[in-house]
Amino acid sequence: MELSGGDIIVQCLKDEGVEHVFGYPGGAVLHIYDAIFRQKDVQHILVRHEQAAAHAADGYARATGKPGVVLVTSGPGATNAVTGIATAYMDSIPMVVLTGQVPTPVIGSDAFQEVDTVGITRPCVKHNFLVKRLEDLAETIKKAFFIATTGRPGPVVIDIPKDITDPGVKIPYHYPAKVKMRSYNPVAKGHLGQIKKAVKIMMEAERPVFYTGGGVVLDDASKNLTDLVEALNFPITQTLMGLGAYPGSGKHFLGMLGMHGTYEANMAMHETDVLIAVGARFDDRVTGHVKQFCPDATIIHVDIDPSSISKNVRVDVPIVGPVKQVLRDMLKVVNESDKKPKKKALDKWWAQIEKWRSMNCLKFDRKSKLIKPQYAVEVLHKVTKGEAFVTSDVGQHQMFAAQFYQFEKPRRWINSGGLGTMGFGLPAAIGVQMAHPKATVAVVTGESSIQMCIQELATCIQYDLPIKIILLNNGYMGMVRQWQEFFYDSRYSQSTMSVTPDFVKLTESYGHVGMRVEKPEDLEGTLKEAFSMKDKLVFVDIKVDPEENVYPMIAAGKGHHEMYLSPGSELV
Amino acid sequence: MRHIISILMENESGALARVANLFTARGYNIESLTVAPTEDATLSRMTLVTSGSDEIIEQITKQLNKLVDVVKLVDLTEGGHLEREMMLIKLRAERTQREEIKRLVDIFRGKIIDVTDTSYTVELTGTASKLNAFLEAVNEELIVEVVRTGPSGIGRGPKGLGL
Ligand SMILES: Cc1cc2nc3c(=O)[nH]c(=O)nc-3n(C[C@H](O)[C@H](O)[C@H](O)COP(=O)(O)OP(=O)(O)OC[C@H]3O[C@@H](n4cnc5c(N)ncnc54)[C@H](O)[C@@H]3O)c2cc1C
Ligand SMILES: Cc1ncc(C[n+]2csc(CCOP(=O)(O)OP(=O)(O)O)c2C)c(N)n1
Ligand SMILES: [Mg+2]
């Protein structure tokens, strides 16, 4: 079969099993768009801004585990996509981004819509390629998918000059079933000796805690994690990226840890003698002051990326390997061990944890005349029976969603943790809904964040995506305002967002349904009505308490035992 | 501490940029960096001199290994190794200074490779510290131009850094 570059690209995507491509056309990719026009297997989803294409592909990947695919033009198309690429990079999301480039002969001449895409994206991709010969195209695409989806996943950019896709030039097509790269060999298996060493330490532990993260979700290792936690009867806390891997209602779960983690999770981290970190990267939002982090603990760390280990915090027992295999082998070693976990010590440890739990650190004013954002998330959970895919933007609403929507399953909680990209929520939901057309998909957002990619409401009507947008409208960049309240004597510099469109009318103008709620007693009814509209996008503008804050909070640079628990409280 | 890291990488156009980018993006020190093709045209060899605490050097080697273009890497300073750097140095050499300069070049086993009425150009090879010693020994006012390649290194013994 002889094909041109444009057709080769589409054929490669088919052979790779890609069903959806999120993109936006332009001069440099017109040949590719023509190839897309002439086939039916790969569906192209036309967004309204290239940033959204990347976020949508990213959301698709997070919800399915399959790589998301993006197609944008050169120059501004590529630069617009960069925020989305960086977002995926920071959270280790598998993605392949095809960018158009000016024709090979004019590269470097400041040609129309030329930017050095490989240079611009280099620091925020796992790897990138510039295709210089048509003969390399298919193999490069194979390599890109291979790199994006193996080891520690991440986005890979393929920059494709226009002449490479020239319909007049055809070559024999062959998509390699496999590629081998001598310079890229992700670790396939964790070392059994290290696993045994870790289990020995775990069996001696008196105050152990599991600290698990996005790696468990990325490796689909929920079941392995749950089995191990239950076999050992150890407590577990999860990062913002790990939520759902161990069920939120599971009795060993202490809640999220870190800056806005629960009192019990953070206190357990502070007092633990054996920390078992799994697929988590000791982010500064989690560790707080590294000098005060887990002061008494022997630290075991399972991660597929050697550079994650001992990067921020010195680790005692490193295990480099995939979460799933390592946890499976760990459980085997545990079951075969003649030692058992120290029951007496664990009982004492659990008693201590129950004391911390009884602080009820996530309490909020349930009698308020204003809608509390926490309450709104609780109602959302109730109305969706805890089964929705929830995407979010960045800010207080994101933390409230993480704290109050109990995630029972992995890949249900979809948010930008590492880069913290406002504008992520709605386009990500587009990707999720494309992947799961029948599922309930909700975006928890703020009035500031939603405006960053609001144009995607048009994409939602075009593809009939019945997403539910839950806007916790506090009239502020709440997260910024909270920091200004705490650390700048309430000088609310540029953090007021009182000037917004009428979201109900705006939504209607796009052809969707808009609703507004102002009183707590109306909330449940409105959300029920919204979610009963199975084939409509409904945008619910919920006026919440403008000055509510996220608690608990560990101020930057503090230790885990130093938290603000409630308004006006001292550090505890 | 000073470390010499030797890297075999794919001879691709972006490879050098990836390494350089890594050092600036993560704020690592980079004292020198040399790169050239090897006997295998698909591979280039880079020698990189850096410094930092043990933790930082550990991160540097891990981050370098993570680059998809890096095939193999060794921290030469962890074992016996040889280090050589070449320097070309142009010196003002008027009549009265010529003898003195020549003697110094001989002591350091350098070569004078270009001569004019008023100048000598000297080629000198050795460890970085030997080259530094020469620069200290020669009268500073005579130096017109110094060009150094940056060190390249190789491990001692029969084994090589190969695929
Ligand atoms: C406003 C805001 C507030 C935040 N507050 C908090 C907070 O209070 N608490 C909190 O936890 N986070 C918080 N975050 C998120 C935080 O910034 C980090 O994104 C998050 O803590 C990182 O999660 P993680 O450690 O699970 O790592 P991830 O970024 O999910 O990284 C995954 C790790 O797993 C490894 N891995 C990947 N695949 C595999 C595999 N197959 N096998 C083994 N290992 C693998 C990777 O190498 C990596 O080390 C906040 C973010 C924002 C925007
Ligand atoms: C693109 C981008 N710009 C700026 C920020 C900094 N930032 C973090 S949270 C936040 C405010 C978010 O406000 P809103 O969406 O209304 O959410 P709220 O905190 O009020 O719930 C800002 C500006 C960011 N995370 N992303
Ligand atoms: Mg807000």
Folded structure, characterized:
The complex is a heterodimer of chains A (572) and B (163). Chain A has 20 helices and 20 strands. Chain A is an alpha/beta fold and 572 residues long. A 6-stranded parallel sheet of chain A has the order 3-2-4-5-7-6, sandwiched between helices. The longest helix of chain A has 15 residues, at 50-64. The N and C termini of chain A lie far apart (70 Å). Chain B has 163 residues and is of the alpha+beta class. Chain B has helices at residues 15-25, 54-66, 95-107, 128-137; strands spanning 2-10, 32-37, 43-51, 70-75, 81-92, 111-115, 119-126, 143-148, 152-155. In chain B, strands 5, 6, 7, 8 and 9 form a 5-stranded antiparallel sheet that branches. In chain B, strands 2-3-1-4 form a 4-stranded antiparallel sheet, with helices on one face. The radius of gyration of chain B is 18 Å and the shape is elongated. The A-B interface holds A 118-119, 122-123, 126-128, 130, 147, 181-184, 305-307, 309-311, 314 and B 9-10, 13-14, 17-18, 21, 25, 55, 58-59, 62-63, 65-66, 68-71, 163. Bound molecules: flavin-adenine dinucleotide, thiamine diphosphate (TPP) and magnesium ion (MG). Flavin-adenine dinucleotide (FAD) is lined by residues 91-92, 152, 213-215, 218-219, 239-242, 256-261, 279-281, 283, 285-286, 303-305, 308, 322-323, 394, 398, 417-418, 420, 479 of chain A.
What is the residue-averaged pLDDT of chain A? 97
Radius of gyration of chain A: 24 Å
- Uncertain stretches of 5 or more adjacent residues of chain A: none
Of all chain pairs, the largest interface belongs to: A-B, 20 and 20 residues
The count of strands of chain B amounts to 9
Count of DSSP H/I helices of chain B? 4
- Based on CA inertia axes, which overall geometry of chain B fits? elongated
Category from helices, strands and their pairing of chain B:
alpha+beta
Element-level helix/strand string of chain B: EHEEHEEHEEHEE
- Quote the average pLDDT of chain B: 95
* Ligands, deduplicated: flavin-adenine dinucleotide, thiamine diphosphate, magnesium ion
Q: Fraction of residues of chain B in helices?
A: 25-40%
Number of strands of chain A: 20
The number of distinct helices of chain A, counting runs of at least 4 residues, comes to 20
Work out the radius of gyration of chain B.
18 Å
Give the termini distance of chain B in whole angstroms: 28 Å
Report strand order across the widest sheet of chain A: 3-2-4-5-7-6
